[in-house]
Amino acid sequence: MPEPHRRTLLALVAAAVALAPARALPADPLAEVRLLAVRPVAAAAADADSHPFVEWLEQRRVDANVRALEAAGRRLAVPFGGFEPRFSWPLADLGSGQFDPWAISNFVDQDPTWPGQTLDYLCGGRTYDTNAGYNHTGNDIFLYPFPWRLKDRGRVAVVAAAPGQIVERNDGEPDENCALGGGASNTIVLEHSDGSRSFYRHFRNGSVTPKQLGDTVARGEYLGLVASSGSSTGPHLHFAARNAAEELIEPFAGFCNAQANGMTSWWLDQPRYREYRLVDLATHVGIPTDPPCPQPEDPRYKRHFAAGERVVVGAYFRDPTPAYGATLRMLRPNGSIYAEWSFEHAETRGAAAVYWGVHLPELPLPSLRGRWKVVATYTDPAGNQQVRSRSFWFGTLFADDFELEAAPDPGWQKVGYQP
């Protein structure tokens, strides 16, 4: 065939190929998945007041405030004159993009001896005491994952667990403490209709509700933002309660609850001892950084990838338990499986992050471009199945391809607060 004719024929063939519709790839062998890291969080991830004298002083301040309100005719409670409160969960998510980004590290210590003699309400050891004679008097709920980042961005609010009247309010204290003995905490104390009280500590500086002593709050109303003021090792809420006789209450009912309420729960719906949860599923450019306290973590989120790049998939678990984990799939734009793997936890922890690496195809063929998805299915020991998914983009860029935090955050309206 003459050379001009051959070139014309090749050009026609090339044009036909270019105009042909792209077809989905056949099912290929699944991509290799490598476990990169497992990062457990210690059970005692955050602490509260470390000396009994600290709480004694707080009680005396509260008593003085209540006497002042009573003298002014403003005290609303009738001690021993009604039913004890029933608490709702005292935290609210303000648009973190995660699934309830917190976990419990410590309950009330039921063993009055010290040091190192601990017992929680369900006969376990999820609590602590100190050499100074302090036995933990509340429930510590720490932020997770990336607690300092959540604190800096104001993503978790403390809300009233029951209706009440403010009988103690403190603000203006530093909120990036990393150890016990950090001084006074930004605090709210509520007195309820029967004279019982609930205590909320370690708020962010400047975030405490503008309401003052004697003002009332409704159930679920904003009180402040979670931080690490006072005697605290990291961002968390110390939530505690006392009855009208000022006796310590462990809101959780359990066989080893030696407090005044014993087997009577003070929760509207008592949370389980372990709240198994896949808190978050994310894609990263690498394993997130974990700098020294109190520097904020860098999650290294990434949601747009090029051909041949490695996707780091991170799964963040609350209360992981041995023999339970998750099954994960990475799906192409047409829904077919590109990679599939599973993971089981080796030990019980308060929280744990697991990271895997998956390399994307070397060629960005048209059928592979677009929105990919990572889907995780987690079945906890109670038999509850949780499914989480997170999208990312391969070989193309969209306007919404960046961190969720870049979008307007509607979470503040949940509790009627504007920063």
List keywords for this structure.
single chain, mainly beta, Glucose Permease (Domain IIA), Immunoglobulin-like, five-stranded mixed sheet, 20 strands, elongated, disordered C terminus
Q: How would you explain this protein's 3D organization?
A:
The chain contains 3 helices and 20 strands. The chain has 419 residues and is mostly beta strands. The longest helix is centred in the first third of the chain and has 20 residues, at 52-71. The termini are far apart.
- Global morphology: elongated
**Strand composition percent:** 25-35%
CATH class of the largest domain: Mainly Beta
Main sheet? 8 strands, antiparallel
CATH topology of the largest domain: Glucose Permease (Domain IIA)
Mean pLDDT: 87
Query: How many DSSP-defined strands?
Result: 20
